[in-house]
Design a protein that fits this description.
Blueprint lengths: L1 H30 L5 H9 L1 H13 L2 H4 L2 H16 L1 H12 L12 H27 L2 H4 L10 H28 L9 H10 L4 H28 L4 H10 L14 E2 L2 E2 L22 H9 L5 H5 L1 H4 L6 H20 L3 H5 L3 H8 L14 H4 L7 H5 L6 H16 L7 H10 L34 E4 L2 H5 L1 H17 L3 E3 L9 H6 L2 H18 L3 E4 L2 H10 L8 E4 H10 L12 E4 L13 H9 L4 E2 L29 H10 L5 E4 L2 H16 L8 E4 H9 L2 H7 L38
Parallel strand pairs: 3-4, 3-5, 5-6, 7-8, 7-9, 9-10
Antiparallel strand pairs: 1-2
Helix pairs in contact: 1-11, 1-13, 3-12, 5-7, 6-11, 7-9, 9-10, 9-11, 12-13, 13-16, 16-18, 24-31, 24-32, 28-29, 30-31
Bound molecules: iron/sulfur cluster (2 copies).
């Protein structure tokens, strides 16, 4: 008896020392990161939300269960480990007393049943994991496998260790049944089966098996516990903490302001020598950023949904996190060294790691390749999928901020966009004079705010740069204005006083230009007395609704599809003319995933008589990007397949007559891809990409007129878009031959 107690306690002490040492080291590494007081404040001030998140995300495994088969396997394993904590207490108790039963639980048969049920459930989970890992191994599927780049050997070892935990558990419990030491007379069905197999060995052998396998069980559990702290399975410990300090409701929507030393950076007072501008070194990340790195489970769900990865680009959100983590751990001895002398004494490999630039190409031995950094469209698919709430977009943007603001290193073709934003207030550099051209020829006058918004005006219509200046987007703008007018909604526009919201500048990392534009717009909006804003561009919608509050601009913002769906539901807009077409809807990332507006555009189409909506495979939360977000609209797409082509090929799979969307950027990107497909004969000539507002507007026209004009005339009469920036990289007005958006030419 004494020997087994000693062995059990020694094993425990060794494991606790090893795991504790590692956890302290991890904690120390995390502390080398920057402060993030806002995370602590948020967690402190919202205990109810935090509790709910823990229940749904951690215990309910909400995100994991979206992937039904692996989700169920993980759910079974997770809950198995929670329930089987009872058996570990029992194993320790057995070391001291053969008749041990957990106080308060005693010999309740249902506890024995539950323990066995979950032991079997874990085995089922393991079997599922094994099949998944075999079927989707990187060796078989190459980069298509979500495990490509993950540490697969460690994952196999963990599966084996978990199997050993359950196997040793069932053997010692089976032996206990035969020795009379088992606390549960009934219910433990699996242990009873094993006991039945072991019974012929006799009492002495069963006693030996009981002692040996209890010690083995403790050794395996403790060994597993130590291994967890050294592997990707660290997430078992840190995932609940990461979820607790993650952004609410998630890392989508708004970007975070630039912070240095825990404070929001004020550009007027910031000092490049002492303040941190974005992330230029691993220690510039906050402790929460480092926690993200330590929490990654390497599951690859983010990678499998990333449009950049899917189209052959080097960006994998998983690998970004893993590369940062590996670098942080390799550089840690340098960061933790207490003096220059101590740093000098470090191995050369550590010193070399400390010298690596955070962003740099292969020649520079950078941790993150520039092609990785600039491939991100900010689509949010990674954040949406990540089961442990890692905030990839924030990290990518913070690294971009450093590159743009400190290193002046970014894709050169984006520089004209930034100059145009700074000097002309729109990405094309067309200036304020053309901002009202879209309204020419409408059968009514569009009121323009002059000073204060009139008391009779309900909505300020935020048209956006593309909606005002890009040919195809202008058609949607006209349709929206027409619909609002028809429904009797009083609205006004800012016209020349409107400038870019700053979204492209912010998403590329130019926080300085973003702040300038945002402050200017907030001033304009406040002076005009704007309260309710309807925006037709999801990027403007997201920026004004979610990011302007960071600068004191608080407005009630809705997207035009939300307003139009409501007007239809209220009977203020009644579609009457059949639009006899098969229509597939493309979810704009900044409307859908980032802002959860999935239903209104679909509701609009459901009300249009004759329309036959046809969903693409990747839709709603799993919608596939058009390739324009994250300022990618303004960068060349040189690597891999074009994202818009990939999306259009999926759309063509539904054999659509029309592709609808709710975003001018998407219209441009998808429109370009459709044009290319028409040129190659892969798409029918009549196929168009339109805004859902254009479909609704067409259905409001008298049947004869609607039938006569067909899909190509989805815009109100007279909408020729003269003088606008065209999506094919040119400006339609010959008198203003400025370069158009380079990222979506037809080549
Ligand atoms: S935001 Fe989209 S493009 Fe960027 S890493 Fe995540 S999934 Fe990939
Ligand atoms: S970042 Fe999240 S989704 Fe991606 S591999 Fe890590 S845990 Fe999985």
């Amino acid at each position: 008896m004494a020997l087994r107690i000693i062995i059990g306690l020694v094993l425990t002490a060794v494991a606790a020392a090893l795991a504790g040492r590692r956890l302290w080291w991890l904690y120390s590494v995390g502390r080398t990161g920057q402060p993030a007081p806002e995370r602590i404040d948020a967690a402190r001030h919202h205990p109810a939300t935090d509790a709910e998140t823990q229940v749904t995300e951690v215990f309910g495994q909400r995100k994991l269960l979206k992937w039904s088969v692996p989700g169920i396997a993980h759910f079974l394993t997770f809950w198995g480990f929670i329930i089987l904590l009872l058996t570990i207490i029992e194993a320790y108790g057995d070391l001291f007393s053969k008749t041990f039963a957990i106080p308060g639980i005693g010999h309740w048969a249902w506890v024995g049943f539950l323990e066995d049920l979950f032991a079997v459930a874990v085995l089922v989970g393991l079997a599922i994991f094994t099949v998944i890992r075999l079927r989707h191994s990187p060796r078989k599927e190459g980069r298509e496998s979500r495990f490509a780049g993950s540490h697969t050997s460690a994952a196999w070892l963990v599966l084996f260790l978990i199997f050993l935990v359950i196997a040793t558990l069932l053997v010692y419990r089976g032996a206990q049944i035969n020795t009379g030491d088992f606390p549960y007379a009934h219910g433990a069905f699996a242990s009873q089966i094993v006991g039945h197999w072991l019974a012929p060995l006799g009492l002495t052998a069963n006693k030996a098996l009981e002692t040996t396998f209890i010690l083995l069980q403790l050794a395996v559990v403790l060994g597993f516990g130590v291994f967890v702290t050294y592997s990707k399975h660290l997430h078992i410990i840190v995932a609940p903490v990461n979820v607790l300090f993650s952004r609410r409701p998630n890392g989508l929507g708004a970007l975070q302001p630039m912070r240095s030393g825990g404070k929001v950076l004020d550009f007027e007072e910031a000092d490049p020598d002492t303040d941190i501008f974005g992330r230029g070194k691993i220690e510039d990340f906050t402790w929460k950023g480092m926690l993200d790195m330590a929490t990654c489970t390497e599951c690859g769900r983010c990678q499998s949904q990333c449009p950049a990865w899917a189209t052959g680009k080097p960006l994998s959100p998983k690998m970004v996190i893993l590369d940062l983590r590996d670098h942080a751990f390799a550089k840690a001895p340098y960061l933790l060294a207490k003096s220059d002398e101590a740093k000098e004494k470090l191995p050369d490999s550590v010193k070399a790691e400390a010298q690596r630039p955070l962003v740099g190409d292969e020649a520079a031995n950078g941790v993150i390749d520039p092609d990785v950094l600039w491939s991100c469209t900010n689509c949010g698919a990674c954040v949406e999928e990540c089961p442990v709430d890692i905030e990839h977009i924030d990290h990518i943007t913070d690294m971009r901020r450093h590159q743009v603001l400190i290193e002046s290193a970014f894709p050169t073709e984006a520089s004209s966009m930034m100059k145009n934003l700074e000097n002309k207030g729109d990405p094309w550099g067309m200036g304020e004079a053309k901002r009202l051209d879209w309204a020419e020829g409408l059968g009514f006058e569009v009121p323009v705010v002059d000073g204060k918004i009139g008391g009779d005006v309900e909505y300020l219509y935020w048209v956006g740069c593309a909606g005002a200046l890009e040919d195809r987007a202008r058609k949607a703008t006209r349709a929206i204005a027409q619909l609002l007018h028809t429904a009797g909604v009083s609205f006004a526009v800012l016209g020349p006083a409107e400038t870019c919201t700053g979204d492209p500048a912010r998403r590329i990392g130019n926080e300085f230009v973003y702040s300038m534009l945002a402050q200017q717009n907030i001033e304009t909006l406040n002076e005009a007395g704007a309260r309710k804003i309807v925006a037709s561009c999801p990027h403007c919608f997201n920026t004004i609704a979610n990011e302007y509050p960071q600068l004191g601009g608080n407005y009630e913002v809705i997207h035009h599809t939300q307003l139009l769906a409501r007007l239809v539901a209220e009977g203020k807009l009644t579609p009457v003319s059949p639009v006899d077409e098969r229509i597939t809807y493309h979810d704009p990332c900044f409307l859908g995933r980032h802002n959860r507006v999935f239903t209104p555009p679909r509701e609009i189409m459901e009300h249009v008589p004759g329309a036959r909506p046809q969903e693409m495979h990747r839709c709603k939360e799993r919608g596939f990007c058009c390739g324009a977000g994250g300022a990618r609209m303004w960068m060349e797409e040189r690597i891999g397949k074009r994202i818009n082509t990939e999306r259009i090929e999926e759309a063509l799979g539904t054999n659509p007559d029309t592709i609808s969307t709710g975003c001018p950027y998407c219209m441009v990107m998808l429109g370009d891809a459709v044009s290319a497909k028409k040129s190659s004969g892969e798409a029918k000539e009549s196929l168009e990409v339109v805004d859902v507002a254009q479909i609704l507007e067409r259905s409001l026209r008298p049947p004869v007129a609607a039938a006569a004009v067909g899909p190509a005339a989805a815009e109100p009469a007279g909408a020729d878009g003269a003088g606008g920036a065209s999506g094919d990289g040119k400006v339609a007005d010959p008198g203003t031959a400025r370069p158009g958006p380079p990222g979506h030419d037809l080549g």
